[in-house]
Amino acid sequence: MQDDPVIRVVAKVLTPAIMLFALYVQFHGDYGPGGGFQAGVIFASAFILNAIVFGMNRGRHVWPPKFNLQCIALGVILYGGTGVASLFLGGNFLDYNVLSHDPIHGQHLGILLIEFGVGLTVASVMVGLFFAFASRTQHLRLLDLSPSKAATSSKVDAKTKPKTTKSASKTKQASNPK
Amino acid sequence: MIEFWINAAIAILLSAIGIMAVRQQRLFAVIILSGAYSLVAATWFVILDAVDVAFTEAAVGAGVSTVLALGTLSMVPANEKQRPVEALPLTLAIATGLLLLLAVADMPEFGSPDTPVQQHVGPHYITQSEKEIGVPNIVTSVLSSYRGFDTFGETAVIFTAAIAVFLILTGWTRKKVAKKPKPKTSASKSDV
After folding, report:
1. Which domain holds residue A28?
2. Could you tell me if residue A170 is inside a domain?
3. Which candidate, B171, B53, B9, places its Cα nearest to that of A135?
4. Is residue B12 one of the residues assigned to a domain?
5. In B, which residues are within 8 Å of A106 by CB distance?
6. Do A51 and A58 touch, CB atoms closer than 8 A?
7. What is the domain count for chain A?
8. Interface check A178 vs B, CB under 8 A
9. How far is B170 from chain A (nearest CA, A)?
10. How far apart (Å, rounded) are the C-alpha atoms in residues B75 and A136?
11. Backbone phi, then psi, for B26, in 5-degree steps?
């Protein structure tokens, strides 16, 4: 799949469009359908498409796992932090009225902040989940499931799988101290 | 009248896809069928005027969960094991389905305004949202402002679930976590 020029070109053209649409859904959620959750999923799908077409290593280069973990936590902190900020400004937890001089302004600001937090967490969770699943196997066979492959018995898979994963984890541990 | 026929067509399509997914043995086809099911369901939500739900269903159900299921498929055998149909689960499933169909007859008509659900806080949200929140999309104002605490809980659930999945799948161990980031965590705490 990575050698197919059509798929490569289409993926390259589509990726910025998907990300732009995700940002539109994120920040236009007050006025139309959408919001942080949907925008996060759409934003993640751009990176997942990139990783599927150009390979896991390049995908991990674009969105590093450590950055991913930080983003997951940062989204929740942003949401909770907005609530705590409204506590300190004299309101209830997550009462956005006090965030600005005008209650309506405060509501807009609060909704924008917490929706961004939700979007950040959801996007990085989705990308991280995909990488976590995909990194379990050496080669992601997404679309090349031929019937002959499908016919291989489950016993072979069950026998070989634990060995490979064990050896992989061993090599990981061995390589880590270096 | 035309809406009835559209609804009927979608219902038939949904049950056809469901039956095909149950009868299919190749897991790859089952995953694609479940994605198609989500897409048809999203169309139905649009007809029911639940645009936000349709959006979520199309993005999550048809998009990301299909990709995640395909990722899982690369770790498991490609075919479902052939099992004989057992009598007890089948009768239980059919009985539950019939009971649910019976219960549908007792439900209030779709969109009727005098059900208990619509009488409680709904009218306040619909009439006061523009004045109190100032956001045109009432779904957003309910989700993020009136029910902001619930959404916070949902985000925390997503966070916790993702951490649990990463722990299981990527094989982090206590040693690695304890050795490296200890000084960093204290630094980031002071940052916050």
Report:
1. 5-146
2. no
3. B171
4. yes
5. none
6. yes
7. 1
8. no
9. 6
10. 8
11. -80, 125
Among the partner-chain residues B134, B145, B155, the one whose CB lies closest to the CB of A75 is B155
> In this structure, is residue A166 part of a structural domain?
no
Give CA–CA dist A43/A124, Å, rounded: 9
> What residues of chain B lie within 8 A of the CB of A169, using their CB?
171
Interface size A-B, in CB pairs within 8 Å, comes to: 164
Q: Cβ contacts (< 8 Å) between A84 and chain B: which residues?
A: none
- B7 within a domain of the structure (yes/no): yes
The domain in which residue B34 lies consists of 1-107
CB contact under 8 A, B74 and A44: no
pLDDT in tens, chain A (178 residues): 567 889 899 999 999 999 999 999 998 888 888 888 999 999 999 999 988 888 888 888 888 888 898 999 999 999 999 999 999 888 888 888 888 888 888 888 889 999 999 999 999 999 998 888 887 765 555 544 444 444 443 444 444 444 444 444 444 444 444 3
Could you tell me if residue A25 is inside a domain?
A: yes
Amino acid (one-letter) located at B39 = L
Run of H or E residues at B7 = helix B2-23
How many domains, in total, are found in chain B?
Answer: 1
Domain at B30, CATH number: 1.20.120.1200
Q: Which ipTM score applies to this complex? A: 0.76
Residue B148 counted as domain residue: no
Across the interface, whether the CB atoms of A79 and B155 are under 8 A apart is answered yes
